[in-house]
Amino acid sequence: MYETHYHRPTSIDAAVKLVGEAGGEGKFLAGGMTLIPTMKQRLAAPSDLVDLRHIAELKGITVNGKSIRIGGGMTHAEIADHEGLKAACHGFAELAGLIGDIAVRHMGTIGGSVANYDPAADYPAALKALGATIQTNKREIAADDFFLGLFETALDEDEIVTAISFEAPDQCAYEKFRNPASRYAMCGVFVAKRGGEVKVGVTGASMSGAFRWTDGEQALSSNFDGSAVDGLSVDESDMLSDLHGTSAYRANLVKIITKRAVNKAKAAG
H helices of the chain, where? Predict the structure, then answer.
């Protein structure tokens, strides 16, 4: 690793100031699950690391009826174990418990994951399906406007994800087909139903990152049952194709995993 300067601010304002003073060479450090390995491989060499893990403003989970707010500094394990969240939106808590392994879940944070936007990350599918809002130190951004492309978001260089907020749906569930080695989603689907409207967020399958499967949403809004997507097809042209599976394989996975997520949501009530 190259030489770097480590900072441990206790406020968002102090963190932003430190990155600004680094002259474009500083990086925010949330959980470090991607940044630290990247630095070890010498693919990144920030002059300054500004650690966000000790900022109280980024902590906490608030559940007020169906309104949910999760601080950007909350770890995946804290989200998965939160009793209030499990009661209000069990599907989201369960998703957090499926991320990586136990070490990743206890170090990685939702704010860091969302800001990094790995194309196989779990949260983006849920945030799109839930119609979530990403709150930063500057503004609020709808999930559909936040995720732009692979590892690309609407965040500015000095912008920090401070919280995620959404309204819990009537029914929801997350299902993913894991790569057996990395545990990343080869296809992950979050289904959320509110009244007669269903949204379907998909991650891990597309070259463009997470997306909403609108054909599936229309079919499931008419009939909230896994069988509703049987006659549909998924466009292969934007699906990933690699040694783990062809584009046709992943397109088919979208249908299969969507059906599983719908059936899980129905079983949960």
Answer: 12-21, 35-40, 76-81, 83-88, 90-97, 102-107, 110-116, 123-130, 143-146, 214-222, 247-268
